[in-house]
Design a protein that fits this description.
- The chain is built from 1 helix and no strands.
- The chain has about 60 residues and is mainly alpha-helical.
- The protein has a domain of about 30 residues.
- It starts with a helix and ends with a helix.
- The model has no long low-confidence stretch (mean pLDDT about 95).
Length: about 60
């Protein structure tokens, strides 16, 4: 009776460890997704700033031709 209880306890501990790791992976994936979203927003803002800065230069280049 000792061995079946030992293996049952071992299996439960293994499933508990896998559950903890799954939660940690989920939290890290959420954090990574948030970081990617922030990066996308920064790139979009930088593209808008670049477009705003380039508009007068493009207009000036058209006039000089």
């Amino acid at each position: 009776m000792l061995w079946p209880m030992f293996f049952l306890t071992l299996a439960f501990c293994g499933i508990a460890v896998l559950g903890v790791l799954a939660v940690r992976v989920g939290l890290e994936a959420r954090r990574f997704a948030r970081a990617v979203g922030d990066g996308c927003e920064r790139v979009a803002r930088a593209a808008e700033d670049l477009e705003r800065a380039a508009t007068p230069l493009a207009a000036r280049a058209r006039v000089e031709r």
